[in-house]
Amino acid sequence: MPAGDDLRGFLERLLGWNALPAVDRALRSVKRAVDERVPLVFHGDGDLMPIAQALHRRTIGADRPFVLADPRRGNTPAMARVPMNYASGVVAFGAATEGTLCVRSRRPPRDFARVMELIRDPSARVWLMVCSDSYERCDVLLAVSEPLRVPPLTTRASELPRIVEEYAEDARAALSTSIPFTQNDRDWVVTHCSTLHEIELATLRLVAIHHAGNVARAAELLGMSHAALGEWFAKRRTKGPKT
User: Fold this and answer.
1) Nearest to 45 by CA among 150, 129, 190, 146
2) What's the CATH class of domain 4-149?
């Protein structure tokens, strides 16, 4: 697990630099979850799976498996920054050995009750993360540490530039570059991204394009298709301010 200051810094980015009591509670929950394999729950708006995956990378390591169990997606391999997925929770549990199994409480696998039996086994070597809407409840919420409640970015307008800059720094580190992230880039991300996941993707793609020099080489760096990145970049150049 990363040093306490590094983990605290990431949780402050998620929850707010002025939300110290919430950050303290979250830090205790994460440490207990990692040390004791206690399931960890995220509350918030939008898709929280990328946040769960980012926390997985920062705690038990990117070399450990991170597996999603979403019956709607079927059985799909990992692609770029999208994790592998299995429709069966039990199969996903097996694939997540020594790593993390992630479940969306809105659509858990049909065999989720069996997954919980496996998780409760003292010999289990899988960490369970549950992503839940702010207004949802699920059985696992009754038996876990304090959930991490991720506030909407609409309540953190003053912190948005700092959030964007920290994600840009992560992107530079991931791509081993010191390429500048410009004020225009930062302003565009602040204006057009409404979730932490959107900010993470936008900063990574912009840094990759600046570093690589063109869309084709950037797409290769990111492990995505030239066409998909080119379409995203074209929309960025033409998209005007929000109204």
Assistant:
1) 150
2) alpha beta
